Amino acid sequence: MDKGLDIDGRRMLLGCHAVLGALAARDAGAGFGASARTTLEHALRLVAAARRRPDPVAGERALNWAAAPDRHILVLGEPAYPALLAAIPAPPLVLFVEGSVNLLAAAQVAVVGSRKASAGGLRLAHEMAAALSRAGFAITSGLALGIDAAAHQGALASSGDTLAVLGCGIDRVYPARHRELAGEVRRRGALVSEFALGAPPARHHFPRRNRIIAGLAHGTLVIEAAARSGSLSTALHAAEQGREVFAVPGSVRNPQAAGCHALIKQGAKLTESVEDVLEELPQAGCVSPATPPAADDQALNPSLDRDARRVLAACGWEPVTIEALTERSALTVSELSSILLALELEGLVECRANGTYLRTR
Questions:
Q1: What is the pLDDT of residue 341?
Q2: Domains of the chain (ranges plus CATH)?
Q3: Given CA atoms 180, 186, 190, 191 in this order, what sign does their dihedral have?
């Protein structure tokens, strides 16, 4: 790799990049090992083929953005560009990074899943991301609602590193409700985007964003994904890139587990604990987090009385109706409703939208 482009070359490349983004061009990248000069020549050819010219205003705007502290523009072929990402079939020509740019070269695990995750799924994503952080991995995800957000929060809660790959320009936050989370990731990790400044969160951006999430990581862990979940796109990119894919199974009656089950059938590793992930990624991890020994409900929840433990056991790990719980627990509906509410407030049971219940931990 060369030392990179001079200021005029970078301005020209960024002007090309903005035009290609506006055209929704699916560039193939210049390939691993290419120089930054080759990247620029490739971008110029793509723009010329579209009968357009580089946008000098966009190029200058990007350079001005990068002049602020902790803002970086990485060009494919330059030494700072992450090697793992450069090795994928279609690496981005340009990456905008805000925060710790060195994190892009760190050992990473991508954690993704449903935007409409259950309370149990969110808790599991938080716990597994925290455990992977303690094992030495940075956690990479997409800042989306649901599992993505829980994964970022789990990493932050364990004082670990996390990267958020955006489906819009790096100067925007999507979804808007994650503005505070994005700020925390920026301060303690890194925000990453291949899209030009000001680019909206367009639908076709997210599959492209997903290939970057997978491409930065040694492996991708999927927690809760419906049959047509966008998370499957990330997992498929990981498989195509030769990276490890992990999937957490769920109830066969839970539509949010269908995507994970499909991945397992296709060869993803059935994952029940962080140790299942670390077994496949020993070269990237550090120390395996301690796993507490198994215990029964009384040992895990000493504050629960006998009836509460009976209801908890009756709930099981699959959605169950209150009628079935009444039969299993031999309690009245009134007694059962009171206990279920208490268990729900403790975070031990989840009431689903269809009125069924299941254990969360």
A1: 86
A2: 7-99 (no CATH), 102-280 (3.40.50.450), 297-359 (1.10.10.10)
A3: positive
